[in-house]
Amino acid sequence: MIPPDDPSPDFWAEAPPPEPEPEPDAAERWLDESAGPMVRPYVMTSGRTEPSRGTFDLITMVVAVGVEPDTTIGLGPEHLAIVRLCQDVMSVAEITGHLDLPVATVRVMLGDLLDKGFVSLQEPEPEADMHDIRIYKAVIDGLRAL
Question: Does the pTM exceed 0.70?
Fold first, then answer.
């Protein structure tokens, strides 16, 4: 760049530093989406990584049993949210999606609820006997029909 013939003193002056953004108050700092969860999943499960009872595949169906538990019995808000969600039959994968929590965390909480009798499990139906040759023939016939 070629300097002008008669530069003004402002031409060579440095730009002033940008104004600092005002510091949000303590309450607003934790309300935005980028702050992440306030309580880490391992805190919700007391550091447990495996459920105390039951096996929970992603397709295992869970349903609430009986009345909604009282908050005084030692269950966290996430436990109560699971019971509310499971008033209708719901899979473990759906519960995980609704709560936006890791699957391992939801499995531990489901084990707690199963221990206390607040939920019941409906295991998926076992797979069909894949040694039956008639199934393979029906699949082949169906593909040929396409």
Answer: no
